[in-house]
C-alpha cells in the first residue's frame, strides 16, 4: 500500500497530461431538487416490492429491485437536467469530444492506484475492529456468488455495466457538481465520496471511499462521465473476477 501511495502524484500527473483539465461546470439545479429526488426515491423504494414481487431473501429479487430503484432515480436526474440546463442531459457529463482521452486518463489512474485500493481492502477490517465496528463481505457480492444460470448473467450485467452507469449519473453527474459549487472542489469531492461509501454500508467503507475520491476527481478534471463510468465498471468487473476465482 505504501508503494501505491507514492504512485498517486504520478497517476494524477499522467492523467492531467493525457486529458487536460476542462472548464469549471456550473450546475443549474440546487439542494431543493436533491430533496425532491430523495423524496421521490423514498416513495419508489416502498413501491419496489409491488413492481418486483418475490421472496425478499432471493438475491436476484434484491438486485432487480435495486435496478428499478436506481433506474427511477436516474430518470429523475435526467428530467431535472433536461428541464433546468441549456445543455440538457449533456450537462451531466455526456458532452461530445475528449471522451477517449478522458477514459484513457481514468484507466491510467486506476492501474497505478490499484495497490492503494487493494491495500485499503486489507486495512479496513483491522481499522473497523479497532473502532468496534462489525464488518464482513458485502451482502450484494455474496448474493451474486450464490446465483446460477440466467439470474447470474443478469446480475453480472447489472453489477458491471448498468449499476455503475446509474451510480455515476446520480453521484458524479448530478450530485457532485452541486457539492463542489458549495464546498469547493476538494470538499465537494470528499462529501460526495463519503455519501457514496456510507450508502453502500460499512463492510467496504474505506476502499469505497478512496475509490469514490478517484471517480470524483476524474469527473471534475475531465467533465466526462464516461471516464468515471469506465473505471467504475472495470473495478466491479475485476472485483467479481477475483471473487469467483480466488474467493471472498
Task: Jot down its keywords.
8 helices
**How many strands?**
0
Uncertain regions: pLDDT < 50 for 5+ in a row?
none
Task: Give the SSE order as H and E letters.
Answer: HHHHHHHH
Shape: globular
Largest sheet features? none
Mean pLDDT: 93
The portion of residues forming beta strands comes to under 5%
Structural class: mainly alpha
> End-to-end distance, in Å?
20 Å
Specify Rg, calculated over alpha carbons.
18 Å
Task: Please identify the oligomeric state.
Answer: single chain
Helix fraction bin: over 70%
Number of helices: 8
How would you describe the overall organization of this protein?
With 248 residues, this protein is mostly helical. The chain contains eight helices and no strands. Helix 2 (31-51) packs antiparallel against helix 3 and helix 6 (149-199) crosses helix 8 (225-245).
Task: Provide a brief overview of the structure.
The chain is mostly helical and 248 residues long. The chain has helices spanning 2-18, 31-51, 59-84, 99-130, 139-145, 149-199, 205-222, 225-245.
